[in-house]
Every structure is written in C-alpha cells, then in structure tokens.
Design brief:
The structure is a single chain. The chain is α/β, with parallel strands linked by helices. Helices cover about 30% and strands about 15% of the residues. It has helices at about 30-35, 65-70, 100-110, 120-125, 155-165, 200-210, 250-260, 265-275, 340-345, 355-365, 380, 385-395, 400-405, 420-425, 440-445, 465-475, and strands at about 75-80, 90, 110-115, 130-135, 180, 185, 240-245, 260-265, 280, 285-290, 295-300, 310-315, 330-340, 370-375, 430-435, 450-455. The strands form three sheets. Strands 9, 10, 11, 12, 13, 14, 15 and 16 form an eight-stranded mixed sheet that branches. Helix 2 crosses helix 6. The radius of gyration is 26 Å and the shape is elongated.
Length: about 500
C-alpha cells in the first residue's frame, strides 16, 4: 500500500479547501427538519446593509442570538460582508450534527467541511498514525485528510453525523476513525478572525465564543481586563458549508422560511474588538524628553499581530503611574496618529502627517493633560509602505489618493482603532478631546468605554504638493478641513 502524505496545512482556508466527497443522501425528505424550524422576522442589516463606520453590518444585537442558536443545536447563517452578492455560509456546531440536519445542509449548501482551530487541527494531524488507513469497515466514522479526490465506500448522513460528533468530543478516540472518508477538515489561521477576516476563521470564532461560559455576558465594550484575553480557547470546531444561493436576499429568505439567525464576518470582527483584550503593556514607562517638552513613554503590544505601539503621556501624576488619567477631573487631549514613515520621518510634502504630528505634540505639551498615541503598522491608511509608494506613482499619472488604491486592488482605508481605544482605556482615559479631522476616528474610538466630548481641529498649512490630496480627503472621505486650512486655497 502506498501512503500519500496528507495535505493538512494552515493554508487550507475557506476558499482553498478541498472539495469533499458528497455522501449526504440529500434526496431524502427534508420536511421533518424544516418543520422543526420556526420562521422568524428578518433582521435587516444596519444602514441598509452598508457597513457602519465602526464596522457593524447587522449590528451588535445580532451576535448574541446567533451564539444562543448555535448552542441550542441550530443552524445559523454567516454573511462575509455587506456586499449585495456576498457569499453566505451555513454553520452548525458538529456536536449537534444529526442525519436530518445534514440532509437539510445538503439541500441548501455545498462544500461542507469541519473547521478547526490550529491547536485542535494539529492534534488530529499528530494522531494520524492511530487512524486506520483504507479501512473499508463502515462501522467506524471516517474523515478525509487529503485534498486528493478519494472514493471511499458510500455512507449515509447518519454515518457522517456520527463522524462529526466523534471529532467534536473533548477527547476524540482516533483509533475509532478511518481514513480516507467523507468529512473534510479545514484549519483556521493562527491568530483567528482578527488576523484574517475569512469565513473559515469566522466559523471557528463562533465555535470559540460558544465554548466560553462568559461569551454572552456583559455589555459590548471592553475594559481591557486580563480575564478577557484570547488565550485558552476550547472550541470544538464548526461545520461550515457554502449556501447555494449568495446575497442578502438569500439570507433574508432563509431566515424567514426556516427561522435561521444570522450575522456577518464584519459584525464578528467588530464584536471581538470590543469584547476581547487586544493589547498588553511592554515594560515600564520611561521619560521621553522631546523638543516639544517632556513626556512619559508607555509601550504596548498588540496580542493580535505583535505590533508595538507607543503613547506619549503628559500628565501631573507620578512618572511611573501606569494609569495616569484614572483620577483625572477633566478630559484628556488626545491625538491618535497613524504611522507615516514618509511624512513623520522624511518630512514628505505629499501629505500632512508630519505637521499634524508636530502640532499635536505642541498642543498636548501646552495643555499639560493629554496623550499622543502613535499606532504603528498603519502606513498608507493600512496598505503598507511599498503599496503606498506605488500609489504615489499612480497619483503622478492623475489618480487621486482613493482611486490610486483602487487601481492597485487595495481598500481605501483598512485602519481600525480598537487597539488604540484599548490602549487609551489602559491609561485610565474615559473622556476625550480628540485632535482629528477624520470622522472615522470618532466612530472607531467609541464603544470601548470612551466618550469623545470635543473635537479639536488638526489645522496645518497646506502646500502645492499636498493640496489636491487634502481636497480629496475633504470631498471624498469626509474629512473636516474646510473651516481650518482649505478656504484660501484653489486647485
């Protein structure tokens, strides 16, 4: 017997998963399961399916019903995004798999696979030596571990559901499994949904949330307490299949007909950013004398991607105080500044980032009570330095800053401010006077226990190299520049 090595890698994401061999007897009647589903009113996504500035599509109230439905053994629907023709996944926790439910899945969806977190996926991989290969004994559950098309003996939905339940047990008996089989496995990316916002990671995240007894408790904001860390998840996986019909129309139709709860990947991302601890402190604060004045430097590390960020603090508290604003009686003057190598370091005239950074430090020093939060890893509104330079070249050909990104197939702005919000909360800040012209920052920083009580305009002096860029930010991105710097300039 020739043993082909199994293809079990973290690159098997939702769109790259192998096509599993269909063994569900979908021709059997679906009426029994369908009758058990109670129709419910459709929950229309917020803003007519357009994602809000703070990331919600269906809204924060969509998460808890979805989790409760999964815990109760029901299917749920997961849309990838707010696009009209978005792909839809049908999700079920594998421990609740039954023959009736799998026949329902086969009628409405394709490409079923069991999604596992990397740790649990590795356990299956490392236990392959205990799985009997090419065993034709259909009394044992079977799994498929290879992307090669296999042709095992046909088995029915009851057999497949038994396999799923076996894999979903706390301690799977791998010696009772055989290979190849009918259940394809898919591995979520390490770091989860906040590292890759894909359908595979979203399905795995739903399983994780359902496994936590505290997942459905508390308001939708994060106080950045150590107990909210993402470590120690014990989800047993999720059965995921792609709905045969895509689009929000299909979501609403399935919801109304079969009583299925639904949410979107974007909503899960927004939920996690508000309920999970995303940052940790790195070392102790230290004095940071600058040409603008003396600040205390506090460093934080993202638990999602490992990127380190720095907060320059100006306050009247002791230098080594970790939460210098906890007892403050007035709002802190805050500038949340995205990293810009070209503007901040080299003084590029193509943007206004460098002057905004300098002016913010001056204003915070003068006020005596505030923070300059420098978020790294957000170069070029999140597209990276190389892509930013490429976009500059396109701008030299006539494209504006938004259309240049689109020409490269890149989003206009991928920055998120949940990490920054948690850093501010960790410093003891609650009320903010925000130095910004960008309305996205206002919605991006709210919902974490922070309150923006005032906007302070970030006024800089334009120059011939950046005036078109500033006009684009005002006209197409909604930046509030008119009252500060642009009225006297003409293109």
């Amino acid at each position: 017997m020739t043993l082909c090595p199994p293809v079990l890698t973290a690159s098997h994401m939702s769109s790259r998963c192998a096509q599993p061999v269909s063994v569900l007897d979908a021709d059997k009647s679906l009426e029994t399961y369908a009758r058990q589903r109670r129709p419910m009113p459709a929950m229309v996504p917020s803003s007519d399916r357009a994602a809000s500035e703070d990331g919600w599509v269906c809204g924060p109230l969509s998460i808890e019903p979805v989790l409760r439905a999964l815990q109760n053994g029901e299917f749920v629907l997961l849309a990838e995004d707010d696009n009209e023709d978005t792909a839809i996944s049908l999700i079920l926790l594998p421990q609740h798999a039954t023959a009736e439910k799998l026949r329902f899945l086969a009628e409405h969806a394709v490409r079923p696979r069991l999604v596992l977190q990397p740790e649990r996926y590795a356990r299956v991989y490392n236990s392959l030596h205990a799985i009997v290969l090419d065993n034709k004994d259909l009394d044992q559950p079977a799994i498929s571990i290879s992307i090669q098309t296999s042709r095992p003996e046909p088995s029915d939905a009851a057999h497949v559901s038994a396999t799923l339940r076996a894999l979903a047990s706390e301690e799977p008996e791998f010696t009772q499994l055989q290979c190849p089989g009918a259940v394809s496995l898919s591995c979520a990316r390490s770091g989860g949904l906040l590292r890759r916002a894909g359908a595979t990671e979203a399905a795995a995240e739903l399983s994780e949330l359902c496994s936590r007894s505290t997942a459905l408790q508390g308001p939708p904001h994060c106080d950045a307490q150590p107990g909210n860390n993402r470590a120690g998840n014990t989800g047993l996986g999720a059965l995921q299949a792609t709905l045969r019909k895509s689009g929000w129309g299909s979501v609403k139709a399935m919801s109304a007909t079969h009583g299925l709860r639904y949410t979107s990947t974007a909503d899960l991302v927004a939920y996690l950013r508000r309920t999970q601890q995303l940052v940790e402190r790195v070392g102790l604060p230290a004095r940071m004398p600058t040409k603008h004045g003396l600040f205390m430097a506090h460093c934080f590390r993202s638990l999602v991607d490992g990127v380190e960020h720095i907060a320059l603090v100006k306050s009247a508290t002791a230098d080594d105080e970790p939460m210098p604003f906890a007892a403050a009686s007035r709002p802190a003057l805050v500038r949340v500044h995205s990293e810009c190598c070209t503007g901040d370091i080299f003084g590029s005239l193509r943007c206004d980032c460098g002057p905004q950074l300098e002016k913010a430090l001056q204003e915070i020093e003068l006020d005596g009570h505030g923070v300059l939060l420098y978020l790294r890893g957000q170069e070029g509104r999140g597209i990276g330095l190389g892509a930013k330079i490429h976009a500059y070249r396109l701008q030299e050909r006539g494209f504006d800053t938004l259309d240049a990104n689109k020409q490269l197939g890149l989003p206009v702005d991928t920055r998120e401010y949940g990490t920054g919000a948690q850093i501010l909360v960790s410093l003891g800040i609650r009320d903010i006077r925000l130095i910004s012209n960008n309305p996205k920052k206002f919605s991006g920083l709210t919902g974490y226990g922070l309150r923006i009580v005032e906007r302070v305009a970030s006024a800089t002096i334009p120059n011939p190299e950046n005036i078109r860029y500033l006009r684009t930010k005002q006209d197409r991105m909604g930046h509030m520049l008119g009252e500060t710097i642009l009225p006297d300039w003409q293109l």
